[in-house]
Amino acid sequence: MWENIRDIILKLYNKITNKTDREAKDHQADTIDYEKVTGVNLMVLVSNKLATLTVTESNINVIPESQNPTKRTEKLNEIAQSMWDNAQEITARAFGTGGVLLLPYAVGGKIYTDIVPRDKFFITSSQGTDIKEASILADVITRKNDTYYRFTDYSIEDNNYVIRNKAIKNHSNTQIPLNTITEWQGIDEEIRIANVDKMLFAYLKSPFNRGRTDNLYGTPITKGSEDIIKQIEDCLNDVYTEFKNKKLKIFVESSLFDKDTKLSADIYKKTQGGGKIEGSAFFEIFDPAFRETAYYTRLNALFELLEKSIGTSRGILTEPTTAGATATEIKRSTYDTFALITNMRHQWEKAANDLVCAYDVLCNYYDLSPVSDYKINFDWSYALIENSSEEWQQLKDAQAMGIVKKAEARQWLNPSETLEEAQSVIDEITASEPNLESLMPFGDEGIQTMPTSPQTGNIDQAVEDVLPKTLNGAQTQSLIGVITQFKQGTLTENQAINVISILIGISKDEARALLMEA
Predict the structure, then answer these.
(1) Cα(86)–Cα(88) distance, integer angstroms
(2) 242 with 295: CB under 8 angstroms?
(3) Confidence category of residue 513, pLDDT binned at 50, 70, 90
(4) 8-state DSSP, 329
(5) Which single residue of 42, 135, 375, 441 could bond 153 by disulfide (Cβ 3.0 to 4.6 Å)?
(6) Which residues, 6+ apart, have CB-to-CB distance to 116 below 8 Å?
(7) Are the CB atoms for 180 and 167 separated by under 8 Å?
(8) Would you say residue 219 has pLDDT above 80?
(9) Are 255 and 273 in contact (CB under 8 A)?
(10) Whether this model's pTM surpasses 0.90
(11) 303-329 confidence digits (pLDDT tens)
């Protein structure tokens, strides 16, 4: 199949893929290596670890350009979140195989995202890093002794996005009707979507390239490290052999046992000595020491060498060196890994923008929701190099100093909110749960004196009659202000009682009596 893939695509679509037959076989081999389930798969171990660091506690959200949500942004965000549920697998596969195609499609009024491996993806036209035309091996079905292959081609013709499905039988390049296979009978041979100027899919590519600048397909993270991986596998095999050979053996003179004695052949080994021989024993124990330190020292050194080869810091396969290190030193020690993770996140941002654009076009084509503008918010975790508690404390200190708004602090806690949305929630909280700062007229000099109105004429006397304690001037003026706001309807009775109780340190019953007397 892979020996004549170029001929097949040329025959079906009159296009030449930029992937040679040799590259097609290499890409297939990379995919097979990644999907291998026997033995220790170092490619998967490394890819999964890097994927975890890339996407854990991170998210993407499709939000409206304006403050008010729309049905379109809700629909796009729903589809994007469904895709993001597989972000760990997608990212790991991109690291492990070099790249992965994210292909949207619609079924029954819903939009899904298909994950297409790199070995089934063939670029037929490109400009710089932009993919202009591509074909994929969409499906393979075997019936008895025959194998059927369905290819799908994507191109833009006269501002129309054109999708063409074609099929072949076995390894020939002779086309067969799609309805030859039951599963393909509902698939259109050609679909045209008007007013489209870019491909309606996304390709997430590994940022690791081994110095190549023309690699559109991406390079597996372990490419070029095959010799190191082979040494690691040999060392692991040696450890296994050492454990196996280290088992205790007892060599016993056979005259000690009769024919009915049952002995474990793994531990006891009979010897023929004809009875006790002078100077020798009836049994000997063979219990060799296990060379644990030597093997694991070499294994750890090879793990560290592989980490350097793929461009990460310690901590991917080895234990991170954090003992006795300061917070700054820990951050510096993980910077190489963070740089690689950041590069992958840039690839994700590019892919996500392409993908949501494709979702948006499909929503228009299938009339799934009214058209509206949207934008994408990327919320990446920086836990690898930052301490969230320290950052939050810094933010609170800055807010207390007046150099950061409360809305900015709330937005840090809820990154999906815009600054306007954060301020709106703060205003809502303040209105329903007012505090002293929001209720009293504070200024640069502290609590200000409330202006006296005709309604406050009896307040001073009420304070003297009800309150069994002496207040200073600032407390008295603040109390007058609260009572005045209550009488004017600015504060409810419960709000006023709560504030008075806290302000001058009395019980709520005393605060209620004072409020009613005034």
Answers:
(1) 6
(2) yes
(3) confident
(4) H
(5) 135
(6) 100, 101, 102, 103, 136
(7) yes
(8) yes
(9) yes
(10) no
(11) 999 999 999 998 899 987 655 556 566
